[in-house]
Amino acid sequence: MISFTLHGIPVSRGIAIGRAHILSPAALDVQHYLIAADQVEAEVARLQSAIATVHTELQTLWSELPKDAPAELGAFIDVHVLILSDPMLSEVPLDIIRTRHYNAEWALATQIEELSSQFAEIEDAYLRERKADIEQVGERVLKVLTGSANLLPKPGELGDGAPAMIVVAHDISPADMLQFRDRAFSGFITDLGGQNSHTAIVARSLDIPATVGVSHASTLIKQNDWLIIDGDAGVVVVAPSNLVLEQYRERQARLARERKKLGKLKKTPAVTIDGTPVTLLANIEFPDDCPQALDGGAHGVGLFRSEFLFMNRPAESALPGEDEQFASYKQAVIAMKGRPVTIRTLDIGADKPIDFIEHTSLNPALGLRAIRFCLAEPQMFLTQLRAILRASAFGPIKLLIPMLAHAFEIDQTLALIEQAKAQLRKQNVKFDEQLPVGAMIEIPAAALALPLFIKRLSFLSIGTNDLIQYTLAIDRVDHEVAHLYNPLHPSILFLLSHTIATAAKAGVPISVCGEMAGDTRMTRLLLGMGLREFSMHPAQLLSVKNEIINSDLGVIEPATRRILRTYEPTAVADAVERLQVL
Ligand code: PEP
Ligand code: MG
């Protein structure tokens, strides 16, 4: 096979080498996971049994056909029985389970997809229409299969010999991405997506190389192709030569050595050369992420994205209730052993839709998302506030409110917090009466009206992902405008430095919790603007600390002031690059 290279947007760093596993949209609708070697025959039997069940169903349908039913109906069932008995449907998926270790649903969906695309190319119209029959029979079997739940294998359960797998998909939603958290995948490639889409953020939090916005990747790359992802450059090499493979393996080994070296910084204080201490915090999606945060030497959690608790829920339990949420928040605060945990209230909408909640905005990024949604659903919001307040009896918690822009939104939120407190007092439930409440500064209007926030709240955290999206008017998940997503645009640098300086002057703690905080190319620039609190993925903590302990504010601050007076894009980019070597 001829080797070729594809280019996309680098979203999660490092090198991944492995075999392609294409997730077709149809396969995404069913569960897809790998079967441990000793479970393969059981999985084969599960599919065989589902096929047998559908056989019986079809026979019953036949025998129960009313006498006056049109003759085509019987013929139609006959065709379905024939399709079901054909080895293409009854045997090939079994081979897929045996050779690729896919679960039954995934194996079947893969084969249906393959057959459908073959049929779609047939010239004869009658035969071409059989495509729909194949899909219907496949759906019948899938329906029987999905009646049974399965446990997902964890990494390591697949045996050491299995080659690493790289997921290739047209698009992956943040909820789908979460399903990969505990699986044995080593990299991601998608056709769509932007630098700071939540899918990209989850890939970074999994700490596996990923490249998104690789147009047509899912059609150009074939199942089982050898792939290399260069997550730093956003490059994907398909079917690499041995020489190229060797070069990347060497780079992979060098990165592993560098990582190991960074590991030694875990207990080193995050203090600049001139003696200025810096606080390094972790962004988490689940309480289970806390051990990784502590491993990276985090001083606390700067952003707990609570909305992830609301995703991928089994239908019967709908949204997590107060007790379930309380258990998660308490787990996080206990895991952090006395370090502060900043819980952000539900930030749903835009690219984080949630099942069971209708999202009807014409333009979701500008619609009823985050705090706007919570204020429109006060009962749901109060449930979350009570759960967070209850957890605050077990350790230091801070409450962070997303997407605020208006004074009345702050006032209504504070009133609801008071209401939640009053409800708990009535029930004699303990909580932290002084629970600090802060705002995310992620809408330009907020950054330009800081006194509104400073007067009412006790801390601020800049969400650069949304701040950039809204300032530059580009959808952060749209790959067609991803090239316009520029953290170094003078307007962004102005809003950042203005917010940091205004908060510092007022004595209000300020952090950055957007992706810029975990980007080592931005560390010195943010330090130069006066930032002393950075919140990022646990995997980035030690690299950012490494930058900090090698930075001298005496040199960086005047250089940053000069950058803030520069407006030419190349001059700004060059000057920021030069900051790295000062
Ligand atoms: C941000 O917008 O920068 C942020 C941290 O929040 P999220 O990425 O979850 O929108
Ligand atoms: Mg945001």
Automatic annotation (TrEMBL):
- Residues that bind phosphoenolpyruvate: 305, 344, 465-466, 476
PROSITE patterns tied to this protein: PEP_ENZYMES_2 (PS00742), PEP_ENZYMES_PHOS_SITE (PS00370)
GO molecular function terms noted in the UniProt entry = kinase activity; metal ion binding; phosphoenolpyruvate-protein phosphotransferase activity
Q: Which reaction does it catalyse?
A: L-histidyl-[protein] + phosphoenolpyruvate = N(pros)-phospho-L-histidyl-[protein] + pyruvate
**Per its UniProt record, what Gene3D superfamilies does this chain match?**
Phosphoenolpyruvate-binding domains, Phosphohistidine domain, PtsI, HPr-binding domain
Family membership = Belongs to the PEP-utilizing enzyme family.
Return the protein name. Phosphoenolpyruvate-protein phosphotransferase
Tell me which species this is from. Oxalicibacterium flavum
Point out the gene that encodes the protein.
ptsI
